[in-house]
Amino acid sequence: MTARRYIISGAVKRYGDVTILNGIDATISVEGITAIVGPSGAGKSTLLRMMAFLEGCDAGSILLEDGSVQYRVGDAPWPAVTCVFQKQFLWPHLTLRQNIDLPMRDIGTVDRGNRLSALISEFGMDSFVDRYPNQVSGGQAQRAALARALGVDPSVLLLDEIHTGLDFENQELVNNRLRTLADSGVSIVVVSHSLNFVESFADRIVLIKDVQVNVYPDGTPLTKIPYFGKMRGVE
Amino acid sequence: MSDALAVLWEYRATFASGFGVTISLLGVAMVIGTILGALLAMMARWEPLGLLRDLLNGLAFVSTAIPALVILFWVHYPAQALLDVRLSGFFSATITLVGLNALAVCRIILDQAESFPKQFLIAARVSGLRRSTILRRIYAPILLRAIVPRWIDQQVFILHCTLLASFISVEEIFRVAQRVNATVYEPVTIYTAMGLLYLALGGSALRASALLRRRFVRDWSER
Lengths: 235, 223
What we know:
Chain A is α/β, with parallel strands linked by helices. Chain A contains seven helices and ten strands. The relative contact order of chain A is 0.18. Helices cover 82% and strands 0% of the residues of chain B. The interface between A and B is medium-sized, with 26 and 23 residues.
């Protein structure tokens, strides 16, 4: 598996008077599944957007090292690095089918028709794929957004609270799919509030809290991470 | 109603001529005003200092605050005297309506472009869409859907403004009706007839607008 990691050097990020990141230095290996956790408003989604190179730092830098290739802000590494947002951002004038198909069509995906059918079938979207985004439930839109991202064969898939709106069955479906993807070499980075997901599927945990980022070594049990320890009453 | 139709039929050639002038004014103002407005909006979006946008905002403010009739009179009389040119009433009316429509269309496009939901463009970028595809398949269709309803209302407003050209002796439908009335002195019949003509014209515009709305505007409200 190719070494793939984000290198964050002295990163500062502010929104007005609010500091999100304060001079962060961190190296985040993103092989397998990486979970970004932390309290609401800590800056998890901001960090994810920076990892997608949609936002730069106010000071310092963030780069993605993928073997011998390096990406920085301005390099536009999409769709090799792609993102599924918390609110999906499906294009409202296109049906879900068109939403999934358009990126594949534009990048010239080989055997597009079959890929599209496979994605629709895999995520159980046959009954609603020809509806518009506002005509489906949050969970259905979430599955379509994930299918849209998978259609472009990313190397790094950044997911912001992907479990929002998904029922247990579909959470299981998505989690298993993410595991399969990760095993096939796709780097998955997930901002998540799902304790079950973090515990059962994440290979490593990145905690963002109090304007600091802590990267825990692979396999660190949750009980050894103060944030989770406190939640479970473990000192 | 039958009297009105009878008058319309008797003076059909005169009414047809006035109707033609009204349609010409509307058509020119609509087509050139829309194209000019769209070009101005694009230039204002691309001009980095925002000077053109400020200028257009200022002009749009002035043109909205001052009644169209005052602007029309100003273009037809003092402006021509100041510039030492002689223009026909039709040309003055055309310039005025094109200008008003261009400024309004420009404002509509700029407003919608400024409030465009950027998240759809971000989703397009991370999905790897090319710039041309983003423009053609994401930006333009979403923007167009937001613009169309206000653009239609603006064109109906311009249709009503064509009536003002009668004040500078342009032989459009309202002035024709006044002249016919001066001959036969049947105001109820004449103005009913004129109302019917406007109904036909405005009704067609509204019908077209309904079709456009159905074609371009869909309820995107989240459930």
